[in-house]
Write a structure and sequence with these properties.
By secondary structure, the protein is α/β, with parallel strands linked by helices. The protein contains twelve helices and 15 strands. The strands form three sheets. Strands 1, 2, 3, 12, 13, 14 and 15 form a seven-stranded mixed sheet that branches. The two termini are 21 Å apart.
Length: 425
């Protein structure tokens, strides 16, 4: 088959309702080869990210315990602005140690290697990745050898209810596609859902929980042992952890709990991240790496100095999907100052983080429009590996979904002129 014929096959196999409501993308005829060294690194990173979640949970719980008052400030930052009942649930003994079973990092492919911009434990795109793998398998194009997304999804989440909110309605088609291919699975409305003795997959963010009338019954069911995945533990859904990881007073803790190998790998791939707070510093002190005494001073930075990314940490409707992301050198000085002021005013109830901007590398990619017009496009790419924590406890890489956008775009996300594909070795 020619590349055009393969692209037509993908187009024709797309479900009538699509996979992402109201969203289209450019087709890539074949999986993108990453090479064995990159694939092996991605496989190794699954254990690193899972261990990072474990250690973040340990650090949070130490912060809420009376005997660890020296760490209380961490829990105070993470808990600010969240309902007390949700916090009590997240700390309940039956929930302790409960972690997400699907982990999806956002990794930028740069000239220096992979760089992590965030970790998502309620990730979209699972159905898209599974569908692409299935299509390429039918074309006898090897995506990779191992567990596919659909195989892992079936093992982890068969015979359970998938609850999905109106806030997450964009992803309903792909969730329904997964349910159609998974024994005993059904997609139900979160707004009216009542536990019925079946395990649950929660496809909605924790900030949305207080908008539903039956969430108390969800908390009670989970505290009695009903499996909700991912668990309703909002501290695990914050980008703040990437900033905590860089704090010098916590370095010994991270190194000890992660182990030197995992610690070094995370230091390599996580760009330096700051917690954006208006709390004053002594006049003789500066913020590390920024060399300013107050975040407001960033407002006078030149465009070249503003290679920084501002974004909401979590627990907000604008904390996902790039809704709150502002790239400093991609906006005017006035817009940048306004974004900083807004971020500082959001403290402490809904904090922002600031991260060093990393430049994804450029490459050429042949893409096809819905009319099957071919175009060689210069792109920048984001890699989204999907790691599943299997029943055995093994962390398994199941797919790498690639989002490619025109090279002049500073933010990589699902826009109409992006291309989406999956990777192969």
């Amino acid at each position: 088959m020619t590349l055009e014929e393969k692209a037509r096959f993908l187009q024709q196999r797309l479900p009538a309702q699509g996979l992402l409501a109201g969203k289209t993308w450019l087709h890539v005829a074949e999986p993108l080869a990453l090479g064995a060294p990159m694939w092996e690194e991605l496989e190794r990173l699954g254990k690193v990210f899972h261990r990072f979640y474990e250690v973040c949970d340990q650090l949070y719980l130490r912060g809420v315990e009376a005997r660890s008052q020296e760490l209380a400030w961490i829990a105070q930052i993470l808990d600010a602005g969240k309902p007390q009942r949700l916090l009590a649930h997240a700390r309940a003994k039956p929930l302790r140690g409960k972690l997400p079973r699907v982990i999806r990092p956002d990794l930028l492919l740069t000239e220096e290697g992979l760089r992590l911009t965030e970790l998502d434990s309620v990730p979209g795109g699972i159905g898209v990745a599974a569908w692409l793998q299935q299509c390429h398998a039918e074309l006898n194009l090897a995506v990779f050898t191992g567990y596919s997304v659909l195989e892992a999804w079936k093992e982890c989440f068969r015979d359970r209810d998938v609850i999905l909110s109106q806030e997450s309605a964009t992803y309903r088609p792909e969730m329904e596609w997964l349910a159609q291919h998974t024994p005993g699975q059904v997609v139900l409305e979160a707004e009216t859902y009542l536990p019925r003795g079946r395990a649950v997959y929660r496809f909605l963010e924790c900030f949305d929980l207080e908008n539903f009338p039956n969430t108390e019954s969800w908390f009670e069911a989970a505290e009695k042992g009903l499996d909700f995945s991912p668990p309703m533990r909002p501290h695990l859904e914050e980008k703040l952890w990437l900033a905590f990881f860089w704090l010098r007073p916590l370095e010994k803790f991270w190194r000890q709990e992660l182990g030197s190998g995992y610690f070094s790998k995370l230091r390599q791939i996580i760009p330096y991240t700051w917690i954006v707070s208006p709390e004053p510093l002594p006049r003789h002190a500066v913020l590390p790496g920024l060399e300013v005494n107050d975040f407001r001073e960033l407002g006078i930075f030149s465009q070249k100095e503003r290679k920084l990314v501002l974004k909401r940490s979590g627990f907000s409707a604008d904390a996902w999907g790039s809704r709150s992301v502002v790239v400093g050198h991609d906006v005017s000085a006035e817009q940048w100052r306004a974004a900083l002021d807004y971020a500082l005013a959001s403290w402490p109830h809904s904090p922002f983080v600031l991260q060093r901007y990393v430049q994804p590398s450029r490459r050429k990619l042949l893409v096809f429009s819905d009319q099957l017009q071919a175009q060689e496009m210069e792109v920048r790419m984001r890699l989204c590996p999907y790691y599943f924590v299997l029943s055995s406890g093994e962390v398994r890489l199941t797919a790498v979904k690639i989002t490619a956008v025109p090279a002049d775009k500073k933010i990589i996300h699902g826009m109409k002129d992006c291309a989406i594909t999956v990777a192969t070795i």
